[in-house]
């Protein structure tokens, strides 16, 4: 563990994580043989109880374990990047697996990207908007890893989960090259809002990030219908996803071998997101979508 509290978080592999003949019951002998850490299951469960709802069924438990892993590690990555130039780089353990396992990897044995890998990709963007709460003040940093100055509009909105704007502000800013700069401070005590019913949406030029004022398990998300359309492309399929309510951690999955251009993403109400699914298959009839919204009791 570093001075920023950055540590490893193990997770389970994706829905088809072991093989078609193995049970996904985490108490089964076959499943447990793929856990090589003496306290691995205990660590996952303890952290999950602290920050996330704990699902009863194995498939959702696998999904939430991956969100937990990504949640913990990306918090560390962003803290490191905000601390620039005191910290100028981060490595995380681990990239991939040499066999199906319950582990710290961000890519599983089959080559599937876990939630961590998608979210680390965003956390390592050259331009990153990163927020943190200190003494009831929401502090927003813009990190610029490019070797040139960037300028543009920094906009911050606090929205409820059906898209109503509760508070907003915008400023023209400059971010010097190779830097981390505090660009906005908001005293949350001055706002009358239910912290578990809102999302903070931050934008700077083409970059966007989402921030929450409470732990994931405390969010009062609404259950909404996920609309999707699928069309064939020369490299696979284009998938369009939308909803009338805010969706958190949208997870697309299928037993067809391929790669999603993005996954485990947040979706604003009435926004349409296009995802490319690169595959050699001519069919993707069994595409499924899971969201964090459906786990909220």
Description:
- It contains 4 helices and 14 strands.
- The protein has 297 residues and is of the alpha+beta class.
- A 4-stranded antiparallel β-sheet has the order 4-3-6-7, with no helix packed on it. Strands 8-9-13-11 form a 4-stranded antiparallel β-sheet, with no helix packed on it.
- Strand 6 (198-204) and strand 7 (207-211) form a beta hairpin.
- The protein is globular and about 55 Å long.
- The model is unreliable at 1-8 and 14-22 (pLDDT under 50).
Instruction: Average the pLDDT over all residues and give the rounded result.
Output: 90
Estimated helix fraction = 10-25%
Q: Major sheet: order of its strands?
A: 4-3-6-7
Distance between the termini: 33 Å
Number of helices: 4
Radius of gyration: 20 Å
Query: Which structural class should the secondary elements be placed in?
Result: alpha+beta
Largest sheet: 4 strands, antiparallel
Strand portion, in percent?
A: 25-35%
Question: What is the approximate shape?
Answer: globular
Order of helices and strands: HHHHEEEEEEEEEEEEEE
Low-confidence stretches: 1-8, 14-22
